[in-house]
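Researcher: Final request for today, and then I'll write up notes for the group meeting. The sequence and the SMILES for NAP follow.
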Amino acid sequence: MDDRHDPAPPLRGRKAPKGRNKTEPSFPANDSATSEILNSVAAHGKPPPAHHTNSSIAIPEAGILTVQNMPSRLANQWVLITGASSGFGAAAALAVAREGAKLLLGARRTDRLEQVAAEARKAGSPAALYHALDVSKTPSVEEFSKWVREQTDKVDVLLNNAGGALGLDTVATAKDEDWEGMMQSNVLGVLRMTRAILPLMTSNPGSSIINIGSIAGRTAYEGGAAYCAAKAGELQITRALRLELNGTGIRVATIDPGLAETEFSVVRFKGDTARAKKVYEGVNALTAEDVAETILWVASRPSHVCIDEMVIKPTDQAAIHKVFRRTAK
Ligand SMILES: NC(=O)c1ccc[n+]([C@@H]2O[C@H](COP(=O)([O-])OP(=O)(O)OC[C@H]3O[C@@H](n4cnc5c(N)ncnc54)[C@H](OP(=O)(O)O)[C@@H]3O)[C@@H](O)[C@H]2O)c1
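Model: Predicted protein-NAP complex:
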């Protein structure tokens, strides 16, 4: 019989293998979320109530079985996000909140964090908590991690996202304070946060550390010496950490975006919004939501899958220097 005529609900797609009793539990599955949904469908004819998503499950003898209303792998997991007050961090908070994740949010602007936490609760997060955090200062990171340990004894996802660029000056003209600021947040901030939170992850195999790098860490550009160096540093920290944590079950990933329209350029140009706007002129840049979707996907792979490194750029950006711009006629 043609697959397209197979009975659809509650399992869409291909039939279970011949000879398998519909009410028989324990379908082959390689993670607890998959087992939970398949066993519930087998026993009750419907998935369990929870935060749901659409997923595909590979069943060796039968090919791909697409089950709608899968419980999300992130439901009730603790996701810690640095730099959650704007851009990728805020969008990622909302994306994982929709999957039912619990949130620990950090940044310096707590008024913004309060708004993000409120939106995250509305979006479905059972607990969206926030605390002031400056990743460029060890005492602040220690204070933040003490607060984290008061909320939970395990972290499932650490998203090291806080950071950014300061200035676009050549090496000949740049300022110490900008260099130091970029190294503090993008490099030392990732190291400090990871050191502080690792004890809550080593006893939790399947947890993930996701660092936000940049294509600037892979290709240099004029005026970007310190930022490119900082993000190249983040890339090598990610690689070293993956080697150090091998055997613990902790996954370590870097997601390296290209041009994305957030507050990034406003911060880089110290509040000069007209100059910041010019960066994205005529380009279909990435949005914070595009990057958040990628973060969500990386964070929700089965525990034996590690997405080591991912580069995400706008279609208009073929390379760091080659950006297609639509000019006004
Ligand atoms: N947008 C892009 O084109 C692009 C491309 C590649 C990579 N990235 C990277 O993506 C990450 C997020 O940037 P974004 O584009 O979302 O920019 P954004 O809108 O400016 O967000 C940056 C976030 O980092 C936080 N942050 C900065 N310094 C911090 C510190 N010392 N301590 C704690 N939080 C700090 C900011 O919060 P507070 O100011 O409230 O502390 C803010 O929440 C950064 O690491 C950036 O380098 C951006």
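Model: The radius of gyration is 22 Å. The first helix runs from residue 32 to 44.
Researcher: Thanks, that's everything.
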